[in-house]
Specification:
The structure is a single chain. The protein is α+β, with helices and mostly antiparallel strands and 454 residues long. It contains five helices and 28 strands. The chain has helices at 134-137, 141-147, 154-230, 236-264, 350-372; strands at 2-5, 10-18, 27-29, 34-40, 48-53, 56-58, 60-62, 68-73, 83-94, 102-116, 125-131, 267-270, 276-281, 284-290, 293-297, 304-305, 308-312, 315-319, 323-324, 329-331, 337-339, 343-347, 384-385, 388-389, 391-394, 427-430, 438-443, 449-453. A hairpin with a 2-residue loop joins strand 5 (48-53) and strand 6. Helix 3 (154-230) packs antiparallel against helix 4. The chain starts with a strand and ends with a strand.
């Protein structure tokens, strides 16, 4: 297994073999006239496709003898993620009874390369071999699935195969979000502790200053007493007055020192069971607040306490009463959230819920558009929305400076692009983005149209 940094460009020298059969043969063969190579990692969300169709090539170059294919993977610009690099080689061959009289034969194969975050093993050029087994032994995995009742397209079948990995990734993201919330609470508590420690330090400084004043006063008293002894006769009255003044100063210093010691005895304690933060001043105890506690997904009938945080219907809610069994939120007949008594929103995702259904319905269509899109694509026959296409195709995130390829400007009978959607539900596809390039028009809190990144 060779290792390659997951963001370093990689050149593969691909050789294709076929297995031996009863007639012999087998071994390395010439690169098929029409072949497609799709590279990805099991947990990745995108792929890189190289293809040869006669003299036309994409991200690859045929060797002079036609026996190998030099494939270029631009990993610096299109990251696949980390993991073992897999390739699905699709060979297209004439066959009656298939759509367009073409049979597609898919051959998944390990490349023997691991994409990781460390340094690459070599100079970025690796030779790999892949065996075309399905050519000799019958149906592809997709064809077998169709025989056994699968009704979707080939792209839907591949998406179905990858779904468990996508679901596992989603669960990992949710767990990371909960961990981040808990870490935020811990950081907040730590800041409170640091603040209390700073107060204690300031009090200690005050006590030290008071002690210094007391020592100074004591020195004055000793000096005055010495003068009284030396000049007992003539300076007796004066010595008594100085002594009294020194005693008064010492008393005041002692009073200040006692007050400083009392202030220094202040402690901050946290009840782990309830999350209540308290300040101890000697025998006195004063509650100053509570650390929020994340309780995960809401459980029907369970008792929740003040500052407990729970999740329901994709949103987070915080309890603001001492205790309750009331649900944090319910759904009305219009599928809208209704806040429960004793709860407030901690994180409101109702806007995301309102567009989730539309985003899910169009995700397969958007993926197909992105896979097949090229610079010569004709968008003229797309339906219009307020005089403009329902789906816009541009380069980069939607902005006033980036006019979509199929937008009808004022000079063409439309109106000039300003970066704002034409109407609710309009879509924008960033054809240069490998992930996160799908936007849909929604309304903000002021009821104005804006782009929402799905």
């Amino acid at each position: 297994m060779k290792r390659q940094h997951y963001r370093s460009d990689l050149t593969l020298n691909v050789k294709i073999t076929r297995p031996a059969n009863s007639d012999g043969g087998g071994g390395q063969v010439a690169i098929p006239e029409h072949v497609r190579l799709e590279y990805f990692v099991p947990d990745g969300r995108t792929s890189i496709v190289a293809e040869r169709n006669g003299k036309d090539t994409t991200l690859c170059k045929l060797s002079e003898d036609g026996m190998s294919l030099e494939v270029f993977l631009p990993l610096s610009r299109r990251q696949l993620g980390v993991g073992n690099l897999i390739v699905v080689i699709t060979e297209y061959s004439p066959a009656a009874g298939f759509p367009d009289e073409i049979k597609e034969i898919h051959n998944p194969s390990e490349t023997g390369i691991q994409l990781w975050r460390g340094a690459s093993d070599g100079d970025g050029t690796i030779t790999t071999e892949a065996e075309l087994v399905a050519w000799r032994y019958g149906y592809s995995a997709y064809e077998l699935a169709k025989i056994h009742g699968f009704e979707g397209t080939e792209e839907e079948f591949i998406t179905w195969l990858r779904q468990p990995a996508v679901d596992a990734s989603s669960k990992a993201d949710s767990a990371e979000l909960e961990r981040a919330k808990a870490e935020t609470g811990r950081v907040s508590a730590e800041r409170g502790r640091v603040s209390a420690e700073k107060g204690r330090s300031e009090a200690e400084k005050g006590r030290a200053n008071a002690e210094s004043s007391r020592a100074t006063a004591e020195n004055s008293r000793v000096k005055a007493e010495q003068e009284r002894v030396d000049e007992f006769g003539l300076l007796k009255l004066k010595s008594q007055q100085a002594t009294q003044a020194a005693n008064d100063a010492a008393s005041e210093a002692n009073t200040q020192a006692a007050a400083a010691e009392k202030a220094a005895s202040i402690k901050v304690v946290i009840d782990v069971a309830t999350g209540i933060v308290s300040i101890l001043k000697g025998e006195e105890k004063e509650d100053i607040g509570r650390i929020p506690e994340a309780r995960g997904e809401y459980v029907e009938g369970q008792t929740y306490y003040k500052d407990n945080i729970v999740a329901r219907y994709g949103s987070a809610f915080q309890c603001v009463v001492e205790s309750t069994t009331t649900p944090p939120a319910t759904l009305d007949s219009g599928n809208e959230l209704v806040l429960g008594a004793g709860w407030i929103y901690f994180a409101d995702t109702s806007m995301a819920r309102s567009v989730a259904h539309t985003a899910d319905k169009t995700s397969a269509e958007v993926s197909a558009l992105l896979d097949g899109l090229d610079e010569d694509q004709d968008f003229s026959e797309l339906s219009l929305l307020c005089g403009q296409p329902i789906k816009l195709f541009g380069h980069g995130a939607p902005s006033e400076s980036s006019v979509p390829d199929n937008w009808s400007q004022l000079a063409d009978g439309g109106y000039d692009w300003n970066g704002i959607p034409s109407a609710l539900g309009q879509e924008y596809i960033d054809v240069d983005s490998s992930t996160g390039g799908h936007y849909i028009a929604v309304r903000d809190s002021a009821w104005k149209l804006k782009w929402y990144n799905c």
